[in-house]
Specification:
Oligomer: single chain
Organism: Luteipulveratus flavus
CATH class of the largest domain: Alpha Beta
Keywords: ATP-binding, DNA damage, DNA repair, DNA-binding, Hydrolase, Metal-binding, Nucleotide-binding, Stress response, Zinc, Zinc-finger
Function: Plays a role in repairing double-strand DNA breaks, probably involving stabilizing or processing branched DNA or blocked replication forks.
Radius of gyration: 27 Å
Helix content: 10-25%
Strand order of the largest sheet: 6-5-7-8-4-9-10-11-12
Shape: globular
CATH superfamily of the largest domain: P-loop containing nucleotide triphosphate hydrolases
CATH topology of the largest domain: Rossmann fold
Structural class: alpha/beta
Protein name: DNA repair protein RadA
CATH architecture of the largest domain: 3-Layer(aba) Sandwich
Strand content: 25-35%
Family: Belongs to the RecA family. RadA subfamily.
Largest sheet: 9 strands, mixed
């Protein structure tokens, strides 16, 4: 009979993320924090003998794939982010800032699942059952098979799951649940790790879909140990401006679908509603074009979104100009400013620069570079772009405009909204036809793009005392 052998060794653990190591180091190998490694005591190292296999391995072709079939949540925008719906046994971590709408959305999802005669358990560790009931009445999320429990003890939560036998469990939030077997208050690294592991093991063994609400830190990252994100199947991030009704839901991690999809929601007093066509939310409402604005089309997964970029250049009162951005990447904006100053000759070096998107949209892909550049040029020369014009393209350090993916879908969406002119990189369409109602100008560098939308840019720059842009050879843009 095989016997267990045991010995002890000292372990060191990070107080921020819970990462452990057998020797002390000054910097955490997981979260890269300095001075957070402390000795966690001695841990027995055990070697266990092999046991009898209860469920032997089977050929992959004989595995029942229907057990992993996704089931709709009843909220189409949430299904889009999840990859079609919730998979039995899947654990989804939903994170976001306080008051952004996490609890409202998940209560709506729970009610819609309960209305389909599915047993649903909603566990609230932050509010009483009466408070959750009041919110459910406000957003019309009452259902006979939706059970509420206000618990903060892990053992009681697991007992509630065994008693109700639900198909879906919502835990709001994982940082408020504590285990009596672990020292420390609820929400610390050890407690969050133990609570999440126990709930995940319970869900996997019984085929229960679980939605976990997670808190975020002041810098926007998910609170608790980083291992929490590795344990769950899906990580969903809520985004949105506090003073705006628009909410964006992104899948940061997804074992069952894409991670580049985004869901759009409208948060109001009566609940949160999905927006299947949100393009108009990212555009300003005005009768005439104004200087410093340009419209682009960004791809969020398979969905094209028409978004407006606004830029403002103002004289700098000091020797160090300000660079302030919202919704765009600050590093790429600084690069575009340098390219405009060096390659095109637009006077931006000594000006304060402000760049922002409309409606709280976030432009993360390089395809928005050209729209940011043209908006800056428009503000510098105080001339608006031609009406109903969009710009799509990546700008390089040499001033070239590089091709981007999905130009056909971007142009089709812009034409549907009513835009009639587009500035795109050369060779984007190849032999594919453009939308009939749209005039497409293909450019190979930023100087050609500026000349295409601002024929008088040279005169305007000279009037403002700047060096004229370099001459644009003929044939760099075509219709």
């Amino acid at each position: 009979m095989a016997s267990k052998t045991a010995r002890t060794r000292s372990t060191f653990r990070c107080s921020e993320c819970g990462w452990s190591t057998v020797k002390w180091v000054g910097r955490c190998g997981e979260c890269q924090a300095w001075g957070t490694i402390a000795e966690a005591g001695t841990t027995p190292v055990r070697t266990a003998p092999a046991t009898v296999v209860e469920r032997p391995a089977v050929p992959i072709g004989q595995v029942d794939a229907t057990r992993a079939a996704a089931r709709s949540t009843g909220v189409s925008e949430f299904d889009r982010v999840l990859g079609g719906g919730l998979v039995p046994g899947a654990v989804v971590l939903v994170a976001g800032e306080p008051g952004i709408g996490k609890s409202t959305l998940l209560l709506d999802v729970a009610a819609r699942a309960a209305q389909e005669a599915r047993q649903v358990l909603y566990v609230s560790g932050e509010e009483s059952a009466a408070q959750v009931r009041l919110r459910a009445e406000r957003i019309e999320a009452l259902a006979p098979s939706l059970f509420l429990a206000s618990e903060t003890d892990l053992a009681t939560v697991l007992a509630q799951i065994d008693q109700v036998e639900p198909e879906l469990v919502v835990v709001d939030s994982v940082q408020t649940i504590a285990s009596a077997a672990i020292e420390g208050a609820a929400g610390n690294v050890a407690q969050v790790r133990e609570v999440a592991a126990a709930i995940i093991q319970h869900a996997k063994a019984r085929g229960i879909a679980v939605l976990l609400v997670g808190h975020v830190t002041k810098d926007g990252s998910i609170a608790g140990p980083r291992v929490l994100e590795h344990l769950v199947d899906v990580v969903v991030q809520f985004e949105g401006e506090r003073h705006s009704r628009l909410r964006l839901v992104r899948a940061v991690k997804n074992r069952f679908g894409p991670t580049d999809e985004v869901g759009c929601f409208d948060l109001s007093d009566v609940g949160i509603v999905g927006l299947p066509d949100p393009s108009g939310l990212f555009l300003s409402r005005r009768d005439e074009p104004v200087p410093g604005t340009c419209v682009t089309v960004t791809l969020e997964g398979r969905r094209p979104l028409v978004t407006e970029v606004q830029a403002l250049l103002a004289p700098s009162p000091g020797g160090s100009p300000r660079r302030t951005v919202s919704g765009v990447d600050s590093s790429r904006t600084a690069m575009i400013l340098a390219v405009l100053d060096r390659r095109v000759g637009v006077p931006v070096r000594q000006s304060d620069c402000y760049v922002s998107t409309v409606g709280g949209a976030r432009l993360a892909e390089p395809a928005a570079d050209l729209s940011v550049a043209l908006a800056l040029v428009s503000s510098a020369i105080e001339q608006p772009l031609p009406a109903r014009t969009i710009a799509v393209g990546e700008v390089g350090l040499a001033g070239e405009v590089r091709a981007v993916t999905g130009v056909e879908r971007r142009l089709a969406e812009a034409a549907r909204i009513g835009f009639t002119r587009a500035i795109v990189p050369r060779g984007s369409l190849a032999d594919k036809p453009a939308p009939p109602s749209m005039q497409v100008l293909e450019v190979s560098d930023l100087a050609a793009a500026v000349a295409a939308v601002h024929p008088s840019a040279r005169d305007a720059a000279a009037t403002r005392g700047a060096s004229a842009p370099p001459a644009v050879p003929s044939g760099l843009h075509s219709v």
